[in-house]
Structures are given as C-alpha cells and as structure tokens.
Amino acid sequence: MIRSARVFLVALATLVATSSAATVFVMKKDAERDARAIGELNRKIAAEAQRISELQAEWSALTHPSRLQVLVERHKEVLALEPIEATAIASVAEVASAARRKAERDAAARAEAEAEAEREAAEAAAELLGIGGEGE
Predict the structure, then answer these.
(1) Gap between the Cα atoms of 78 and 76, Å rounded
(2) Of 3, 9, 30, 54, whose Cβ has the fewest other Cβ atoms within 10 Å?
(3) What are the φ and ψ backbone dihedral angles of 104, each rounded to 5 degrees?
(4) Hey, how many other C-beta atoms are within 10 angstroms of the C-beta on 6?
(5) Burial, 95: exposed, middle or buried (Cβ in 10 Å; 0-12, 13-18, 19+)?
(6) Domain residue spans in the chain?
(7) How far apart are CA 88 and CA 111, in angstroms?
C-alpha cells in the first residue's frame, strides 16, 4: 500500500511538473508574441512621428511669408488681394456687440413674423366661420 502511494505521489508530482512546464512554455510564447506586437506598434509609432515631422517641415516651407509674397505677386490679377486697413480690424467687444445687435434684430424679426402668421390664421378662421370682415 505504501508502495502504491509512493507511485501515485511520483506520478502526481510528474504530472504537476509537466503541466507547470507546459503552462510556462505557453506563457513564454504568449509573451514573445506580445513583445513582437509591441515592437511592431513602436515601429509604426516612430514612422508616424517621422511623417508628422516631415509634414510640419513641409507646412513650414509652404507657409513661409517670403514664398507667399512671391505667389501673391505672381497671381495678383487673379487674387485681387488688397491690404487690410486699420478700420477693418475690430476689438473683441465690438464684435460681441455687433453679434448681440444682430441676435436682437433676428429675434424681433421672428416675433414679427410669428405675430403676422397668427393674424393671418385668425383672419382665415374668421373667414371660414363667416364672422367679422365685410359681411357685418
């Protein structure tokens, strides 16, 4: 009986060791796969960062004032650009005030349109019912 218990314990220990080794092997392969994926993502990120840097340099070259001035001079008949005057520049307060006045005008116009629509509806209803107007 002791011998069979020893055989059972040895077999159990062997089974546990084998399953542990298999689990560690699977975990190692998963970690290697994840490391490769992370490396690939890091390479893609570096390539995107390089592309962004290139695009920023290109944008800087394209929007350089001296280049733009040459283009404006070359195409001035088509563009018909004029320098802005100081009167065309407004302060933030002036812009806000103008926006507020426009909103007030729009609200008044809406209210007037609604009142007119109500008057027309009342006149149409009275006409249908035969009250008011020319019959009296």
Answers:
(1) 5
(2) 3
(3) -65, -40
(4) 10
(5) exposed
(6) 1-81, 89-136
(7) 32
pLDDT at res. 76: 86
Distance CA(38)–CA(44), nearest Å, equals 10
pLDDT digits (tens, 9 = 90+) for 38-82: 999 999 999 999 999 999 999 999 999 999 999 988 988 888 888
Coil, helix or strand for 130?
A: coil
Report the length, in residues, of the chain.
Answer: 136
Can you spell out the DSSP letters for 18-80? HHHHHHHHHHHHHHHHHHHHHHHHHHHHHHHHHHHHHHHHHHHHHT-HHHHHHHHHHTHHHH-
DSSP state at residue 96: H
Give the sign of the dihedral formed by CA 58, CA 63, CA 66, CA 68.
Answer: positive
Q: Which residue has the tokens 């962004």?
A: 52
